[in-house]
Design brief:
6 strands, six-stranded mixed sheet, alpha/beta, rod-shaped, 4 helices, 12% strand, 2 domains, Glutaredoxin
Length: 216
């Protein structure tokens, strides 16, 4: 039978081990709390930073759009006092492609429509009257530029695209009373022209339909 001294020594060892186990458990809990707090702070900081970035990006985009709409498009030509009569005959327009004037009573569909063959100019002018931007090109335009512009048109309501072989330059953009020649799809004026003139202030009949018209 163990002596009283041996029993005390054994009890003391058990208490020491118990205290050590409890100390380690408290240390683990402290580490877990620190990790949790650190992760939480990091997540909050990331959300705040991300929110700030998104707000900043949105502000930058809005400022860019305002600037694009208020700044003149370099090299743009403008025509004023264009006739708006509906006629069912060919029209001799003073510019090519035409940007306004008498036109067919039925518009060309311009709800992101891409035409691979020439379209009646009289119908296209009616589309411009409704606030569409018309992208035109010749066989001299680079295929890559045509493809990029096609993608833009297909993602933009109130726009249309078609070949106009007898125009003066490979790539041109037209709106009612407005026209610009661009060097390629990457030309900054392409985005500016779309931003400024798709349903822009030049539109004689804003909000008029771009569907239900003539389709090729």
């Amino acid at each position: 039978m163990a002596s009283a001294k041996q029993q005390n020594t054994s009890a003391s060892a058990r208490r020491t081990k118990l205290e050590e186990a409890r100390r380690k458990e408290r240390a683990r809990e402290r580490r877990s709390r620190i990790i949790t707090i650190t992760v939480s702070v990091a997540v909050v900081a990331a959300l705040v930073a991300g929110g700030g970035y998104l707000m900043s990006a949105a502000d930058d985009k809005e400022k860019a759009e305002v600037e694009a709409k208020s700044s003149p498009v370099k090299g743009e030509r403008t025509w004023d006092k264009l006739a708006q009569n509906h006629v069912e005959k060919k029209v001799g327009y003073p510019m090519n492609p035409p940007v306004g004037g008498d036109h067919n009573p039925i518009w060309m569909n311009c709800n992101a429509d891409v035409y691979t063959k020439a379209i009646p100019k009289e119908n296209a002018v009616h589309s411009l009257e409704h606030g569409a931007v018309w992208v035109t090109y010749t066989s001299k335009a680079k295929p890559a530029d045509i493809e990029k512009l096609r993608e833009r048109v297909e993602s933009t309501p109130y726009s249309l695209m078609s070949p106009v072989e007898d125009q003066a330059a490979p790539l041109m953009l037209s709106a009612w009373g407005k026209q610009v020649t661009v060097t390629g799809a990457a030309d900054a004026r392409v985005g500016q022209f779309f931003t400024k003139y798709v349903q822009g202030p030049q539109t004689p009949e804003p909000g008029a339909a771009c569907t239900g018209g003539v389709a090729q």
